[in-house]
Please model this.
Amino acid sequence: MIEVRSDYWDLIQQDKQIVFVHTPFCATCQLAERMLTIMEESYREQNYYRLNASFFPVFMEKNKITSVPALLLVKNGVVEDKLYAFESVVKLHEVLNNWK
Model:
């Protein structure tokens, strides 16, 4: 996953991107990230971004991101869809296929 920093922000503003929102000390986020790593292996053509919620409070408020972990479908800089419940790799696979 590509860590979102201010210099990567422009990349997320273009096309369709998958953004994983987390905080470093969130145990649930760490588990969700392991599941996403498996998905990353299956969907190599898709870029996955990691966004540390602590560094982007304006983004979090503007897009009404209510908790972490969160998986976002971002199209042209607009959050089109959100997933908060990382139930399983199978669920992630289904969500990502619907987002394609």
